Amino acid sequence: MTWTADDIPDQLGRVAVVTGANGGLGLEVARALARKGGLVVMAARDQAKASSARDSILGQVPGAALELQPLDLASLASVREAAAAILAAHPRVDILVNNAGLMGIAEGRTKDGFEMQLGVNHLGHFALTALLLPALLASDGARVVSVTSTGRHFGRSLDPDNPHLHGNYEPWRAYGQSKLANLHFALELDRRFRAAGTPARSIVVHPGFANTDLQARSVRESGGGRSQRFFSAGVRRVGMTPAQGALPLLRAATDPRAVGGALYTPRWVNWGPPVRRPLVGRSRSREAMATLWEVSERETGIRFGLATTS
Ligand SMILES: NC(=O)c1ccc[n+]([C@@H]2O[C@H](COP(=O)([O-])OP(=O)(O)OC[C@H]3O[C@@H](n4cnc5c(N)ncnc54)[C@H](OP(=O)(O)O)[C@@H]3O)[C@@H](O)[C@H]2O)c1
């Protein structure tokens, strides 16, 4: 059976927070959830883009329940402010889609001195999830969706002595590390949800090869790197639409049968409808997950309020 956006159950009364909701996959996730009646907090960095994204949804879904929430994942202060504002407005959050991301860019640092791709793709989301935990646990079955990539296959687990790749930076090494971190975060979070006896589920997805701004931005922000240009040209020719790429995220966020701790991807790796795929080999390394958790708590200074043993 092919799962499509028509299979998203009624979302009336449900509250979703989507990061990077001002473009690409995040915008399509927000649009689809709003279409089904959900209240969507569009957490985004560029506010002009966020306003046009909201207008684009309202143009198709008049009366959609949308809230704009400024969020810069490259700043822990901004993550804290956003989480506080969300908690104040919504004591219960049913869906958190940790979608925002950067790929293959030149070396950069977040406001807190983190390597930029690890900081935005993983550490900012780690902090946001930890801070929103009370609202997620107030739901009768929250979903946290993390977005990985085929880049995880060439990523190395975090080196606790050099997570920010000082003196060892390479754009794809950093992307791979951050996307493996997204996978390990999702699996460890699900294990902790279960160990704590909560009904929440954490699910990881790979969207496939989708024609968004990701690849074009990687060209702009790497000074026109060769491999970045290759992917950018390729995705324009053969990439799925952003709406198609959003389907694994939507399935993980809403399908009542979606399994906690599982991976959803397009059927043919980078193309096709969303299906559950097996997790193999080092994807399941408990040691790497434990290290990731320790390093993430150490770097963000935020302790996750969930049990550590099962
Ligand atoms: N498209 C694909 O083929 C593909 C494949 C595998 C995985 N993915 C993953 O899918 C996710 C979504 O990417 P996309 O394809 O939709 O790319 P996109 O169109 O470039 O969107 C990326 C989003 O991330 C946001 N973002 C970047 N830096 C941020 C920051 N510091 N704080 C807050 N938001 C920030 C951007 O917002 P601003 O514009 O405001 O910066 C934008 O909304 C990413 O995690 C990516 O790794 C995509």
Report what the structure shows:
Strand 5, helix 5 and strand 6 (201-205) form a beta-alpha-beta unit. The protein has helices at 24-35, 47-60, 76-89, 116-137, 171-195, 214-220, 226-238, 242-245, 247-254, 286-300, and strands spanning 15-19, 39-44, 66-70, 95-98, 143-147, 201-205, 263-268, 271-277. It is globular and about 50 Å long. With 310 residues, the protein is of the alpha/beta class. Helix 5 (171-195) packs across helix 10. The mean pLDDT is 96. An 8-stranded mixed beta sheet has the order 3-2-1-4-5-6-7-8, sandwiched between helices. The site of NADP nicotinamide-adenine-dinucleotide phosphate (NAP) has 32 residues, from helix 1, helix 4 and helix 6. Residues 20, 22-26, 44-46, 49, 71-74, 99-103, 120-121, 147, 149, 206-207, 209-210, 212-214, 217, 245 line the site of NADP nicotinamide-adenine-dinucleotide phosphate.
